[in-house]
Amino acid sequence: MMNNASDTPAPTPPPPDHPAVHAVGLTVVRGPRQVLRGLDFDVPRGRITGLLGPSGCGKSTLMRAIVGTQAKVTGTLDVLGLPAGHAALRSRIGYVTQAPSVYDDLSVRQNLDYFAAILDPGRSAADRRRENVEHAIADVDLASHADALAGNLSGGQRSRVSLAVALLGTPELLVLDEPTVGLDPVLRRDLWQLFHTIAADRGATLLVSSHVMDEAERCHRLLLMREGEILADDTPDALRTQTGTDTVEEAFLHLVDEAIAAAAGNQPRRPGHSRKESVR
Ligand SMILES: Nc1ncnc2c1ncn2[C@@H]1O[C@H](COP(=O)(O)OP(=O)(O)OP(=O)(O)O)[C@@H](O)[C@H]1O
C-alpha cells in the first residue's frame, strides 16, 4: 500500500488488537541513499515501544514516515489501521520532534490555546478546548508554570510544553523523537514515569526514540536499529535472555557483532578482539 495522504472516508475501524503500526518491506530513500531498507515490524497498541540505535541509523526518518511527513516511502505502512499519512490520522497521532516547537513569546497556556484552536477550531468548541488545554498542562505537571513565558522556561520544561501540545486531543499514538535528550537524570526519570502513566491511564501507544541504551530498559518493547535495518524486535527481557547478556546495551553490541559476522560470511573474528560500537 502506498502512503499518500488521502481524503477518502476512513474505512471500518480495525479490531482493538490490531497493531498501532504495521510495516512490511518499508523503504525510504533520502537524497541518493536508501535510508530505510525493507523494514518489517509491528508496534503493539497500548504499550511503550523504544526505537533505539546509533546516530544516523534512521530513527527520525522512520518516525517521519509513520506520522506521514516523509517523502519517498514505499512498501506497506499502516498506522492505526489506515495508510500512513491518511488525513483521518491527523487528530489521532501526537508527534514531538527533537527540537521543542513552542513560541517563546507566548505563555505555556497561550501556546496550548493556539495549537488547540488549530486542532479543534470554532466558537462551539471553546469549552472543550479549554478543558483539553488544562488537562494537557496537568498531564505534564506544568500547572504552576501555566502563565510563564515559554522563553523563560528550562529546557526540560520546554520539552514538556511540546509534549503537552502533542497530548491535546488525546491522541491514540504518540511519536516522540528523542524527548529526553539534554535532560538531567531526574527530569528523564520523571518524563519516563509520565510516559508510563499516559500508556496506562489513556491506553495510548507510545513510540519513543533514544540513543541512550539505559532508557531501553524502561520500554515494554524494543526496536533496535542499525544502518537502516531492524536488528531486533522484542522485549528487553527476551533480548537479554536470547543474547545471554545482562543489559540491553550488551545485547545490542552482541547483535551488532552477529550482524557484522553474518555480513562477512561468518568469518570468525580474531580471538580476544571485541568490537565496540558506540550507540551515539
Ligand atoms: N534531508 C536529507 N537528505 C539526505 N539524507 C538525509 C537527510 N536527512 C537525513 N539524511 C540521512 O538519513 C540517515 C538517517 O537519518 P535520521 O535523521 O533518520 O537518523 P537518526 O537515527 O534519527 O539520527 P539521530 O539519532 O542523529 O537523530 C542519515 O544517514 C542521514 O545522513
* Helical run tally: 8
Strand content: 15-25%
Query: Structural class, judged by helices and strands?
Result: alpha/beta
Unreliable runs, pLDDT <50, ≥5 residues? 1-8, 268-280
Query: Bound compounds, please?
Result: adenosine-5'-triphosphate
Characterize the overall form: globular
The helix content, as a percent range, equals 25-40%
User: Which strand order do you get reading across the main beta sheet?
Assistant: 6-7-8-3-9-10
How confident is the prediction overall: mean pLDDT?
A: 87
- Radius of gyration in whole Å, from Cα? 20 Å
Total strands: the figure is 10
Largest sheet: 6 strands, mixed
- Could you give the distance between the termini? 33 Å
Order of helices and strands: EEEHEEEHHHEHEHEEHH
Seen as an oligomer or otherwise, the chain set is single chain
Keywords: ATP-binding, Nucleotide-binding
Region (Disordered): 1-21
Domain ABC transporter: 21-252
Protein name: ABC transporter ATP-binding protein
